[in-house]
Amino acid sequence: MKGAVRLLLLLGFAAVGLFFLGAMPRNVTFVYALQHPADVRALEVEIRRPEGALRHAEYRFPAGAPAQVRHEVKLPDGTYDVVVRVSRANGDVQRSRLPVVVSESGPVVLAIGDPPSRTD
């Protein structure tokens, strides 16, 4: 009987630990893969949840962007919208909204191209 109670306590503690582990922010690196990066002059990114924006970043590239831009953030597990605004040398502005699910640490590669797959 005592063994069963101990096992139940251990399982309970493990469940609570897993719950809190999922709520802790993870190190996530968003990698924005840009199509035609030589034409990109600015990249603005907002990471949102339904309750509002969580992270915001702006990058400026007077002579053109690299093919990939890395954005390191700490986020708890969950679903996010990554809203991206790309300004090009000819004055065109592309807006994209990309849904992302964070469930583990590591890089998340987002292709930012012409035309965008989803728009605001």
The strand order across the widest sheet is 3-2-5-6
Low-confidence stretches: 115-120
According to CATH, the homologous superfamily is Immunoglobulins
Radius of gyration over all CA atoms, rounded: 20 Å
Whole-number count of domains: 1
Give the class from helix and strand content and strand pairing. Answer: alpha+beta
* Cα shape: elongated
CATH secondary-structure class: Mainly Beta
Tell how many strands the DSSP assignment holds: 7
Q: What is the CATH architecture descriptor?
A: Sandwich
Q: How many angstroms separate the termini?
A: 59 Å
User: Which percent range describes the beta-strand content?
Assistant: over 45%
Question: In sequence order, what are the helices and strands, one letter per element?
Answer: HEEEEEEE
Q: Could you estimate the helical fraction of the residues in percent?
A: 10-25%
Q: Kindly identify the CATH topology.
A: Immunoglobulin-like
The pLDDT mean sits at: 84
Counted by DSSP, the helix tally is 1
Report the major sheet.
4 strands, antiparallel
